[in-house]
Please model this.
Amino acid sequence: MRNWQRIFGSCCSALVVACGARQDAAPPGSVITVRDAWARSADSGAMTAVYFTLANTGEISDTLAAVASPDAELTEMHISTQHGGMMHMSPVTSLPVPAVDSVMFRPLGAHVMLTRVRKPLAVGDSVSLHLTFVSGQAVEVRAGVRQP
Amino acid sequence: MRGSRFFPLVSATLLACGEPIRGVVMDDPEPAPALTLTAFDGTRFALENEKGKLVLLYFGYTHCPDVCPTTMGDWARAKRALGERAERVRFVFVSMDPDRDTPELALGYARQFDAAFLGLSGTTEEIEALKKAWSIAAYPEGDPRSRDYTVAHPAHTFVVDRQGRLRVLFPPGVRGEELAADLRKLL
Model:
């Protein structure tokens, strides 16, 4: 599937160039989309986590370099790990998103941690995230709030 | 390495015939250590008084944004799946972060997930004594000067059987329905 997508993408690119399309109309090297975004409910001032899937349908890898949210005082990427019978959580400064691939932020793994959320987050609410990639792409995300 | 010393004492075995339990089952379960703390509502929880019930214990902290709420959510789904049989199971969250987690916070946190869940905290001295008795570790990580530190804590759900013996350690990630299926084997 991925090879097929690569071949198809290459053919499309070649066709666009052959038809004399403007250079700035060519698809970017990485194309990031976000799906299945959700956040845990939380009381005002609490910590919570946001999860989603990043898909890169482009032909060049990219890297998530920064996360921000107006809904919390502090927004960071973190990853939960287990070793020696212990759970640990560590900040992550960047996360690669390979070409024609996807990366899941999910419970017990990578997540965006919101520290001291500015308002109660109840089911039906949503939080905003701003994701910035090394390529320069910026993606706005609205994550619906679910039960803990 | 700091961690639970229970792990060398156990092996992943089948508890009985049929599907294996998803956790680590003690070959020769021993009486669980004591655990006595006062809840925010004033009730005194003593593990020794819970014989006849299964007791699930999780040693976490309320500021935990990922693993603890994931585990508590799976507990809640397991409790719903158990239906009336859940009356024979106690679900107890114990904070490993006494500096931030008051008994009120711990109880409120646990009840977010199910009104029947119990959330406990204690003084620093009580929690340190508990960690020693249970041979578990928990310690702050990150900048200790920040109020936003995280806490390394035991990964597993500890299950004390109806005879008061430490019987199973469930790893994080066992889904609610799977947990319910395994708890039925222990009831």
